[in-house]
Write a structure and sequence with these properties.
This is Metallo-beta-lactamase domain-containing protein. By secondary structure, the protein is an alpha+beta fold. The protein contains 11 helices and 17 strands. The relative contact order is 0.12.
């Protein structure tokens, strides 16, 4: 499907289709967005990036009228999900300002400062010297972020979820923590896997669970990713599907809506891949990695054999995933760039004492 096309989930719910990353063509990836109406509340889940995608959101919002309130929930702070966040100002023109709300996670605050540059430099430092064209992380980050325009992630109405009291949410038989909006029409679940502030969104009226980027791969690539939380988010989603609590699952970078059977198969595969990827890393490991480029090459080759590609299977993200896997396994890095060595932590007598 092409950028900006709509998938109708039901009469009140649309998914706006994004696009994959193509750095050679200077094409940014764009995360899918959800547009939903619950009575008089227009709900936007992410806003992607690019003018064309913004126009598609506006078209869907017009199609779902009438509504008199707007809620934008941002799943996380990466630029492919937040570039058009000021669309709430356009859509809310003429509405009382108190009827237009936008929430982001406080844990992603660093991504919104200084155009997100420091955040991306930190992540790209991990592949410096390992991927051609990324020898200078600051320059690489500037080139990467330059593709994401227009970029307006916050406005004067933006607040953080964490300013609100944390709630005990119930979805089917599952008990989770997060926040609810619109008298329960929107449930935002804390997952914090893909990055520090990642959330997923449940729309009970549409029986839809939007996982955003949690299923991008069985091991997160960014420096603030948490593989255990990614696994937990996928397991929660699979349980909700298998118990019939949700009928439709959508993601940030899979350009289709999954019914229960397809979602169960996809999530089961993701969980199996997480275990297989861990085993692959263990098989390649010794107590010390002196030749990091060779390990990266071998691990990426093995992950591809296992069918693990993630949402953006390119050398940058594949290498970032490899470094993330080493950290997840508890190895400790010394040095910088391609000259890093990685070792298992030393357990001295004091740590082994009863």
């Amino acid at each position: 499907m092409a950028l900006g096309e709509q998938i109708e989930i039901d009469a009140r719910t649309r998914m706006i289709v994004g696009q994959p990353l193509d750095m050679a063509a200077h094409q940014p990836d764009v995360g899918n967005a959800i547009v939903h109406r619950a009575d008089d509340l227009l709900v936007l889940v992410d806003t992607g990036v690019t003018t064309a995608f913004r126009d598609a959101i506006r078209s869907a919002a017009d199609d779902l009228a009438p509504w008199s309130k707007i809620l934008l929930v941002t799943t996380h702070g990466h630029p492919d999900h937040v570039g058009n966040n000021d669309i709430v100002d356009d859509l809310g023109d003429g509405l009382d300002r108190s009827d237009v709300q936008h929430f982001v996670s406080a844990h992603d605050a660093s991504q919104y400062r200084d155009d997100g540059l420091p955040y991306w430099i930190t992540s790209l430092e991990r592949v410096s010297g390992l991927v051609p064209g990324f020898e200078d992380p600051a320059d690489a980050a500037r080139r990467l972020l330059a593709m994401y325009r227009p970029y307006v992630p916050v406005t004067d109405i933006t607040r953080t979820y964490e300013e609100l009291p944390l709630e005990h949410l119930v979805i089917g038989s599952q008990h989770v923590s997060g926040w609810s909006f619109g008298d329960g029409a929107v449930q935002v679940v804390r997952t914090h896997g893909h990055c520090a502030g990642q959330v997923v969104v449940h729309l009970p009226g549409a029986r839809l669970l939007h996982l955003s980027d949690e299923p991008n791969g069985p091991c997160g690539a960014m420096h603030d990713a948490n593989q255990m939380n990614i696994f937990a988010a996928a397991a929660l989603a699979l349980t909700l599907v298998e118990t019939g609590a949700v009928d439709v699952v959508t993601e940030g970078h899979a350009f289709e809506a999954f019914d229960r059977q397809a979602a169960a198969e996809r999530l089961s595969t993701l969980l199996d891949q997480a275990s297989a990827l861990d085993g692959a890393a263990q098989a390649l490991l010794t107590d010390r990695i002196d030749d990091l480029p060779a390990f990266v090459h071998a691990f990426i080759a093995r992950s591809q054999e296992l069918g693990v590609s993630g949402a953006n299977p390119n050398p940058m993200f594949n290498t970032m995933m490899t470094i993330a896997k080493l950290r997840e396994l508890g190895l400790v890095a010394k040095g910088a760039s391609s000259h890093q060595t990685w070792t298992r932590p030393v357990l001295d007598d004091s740590t082994l004492a009863p």
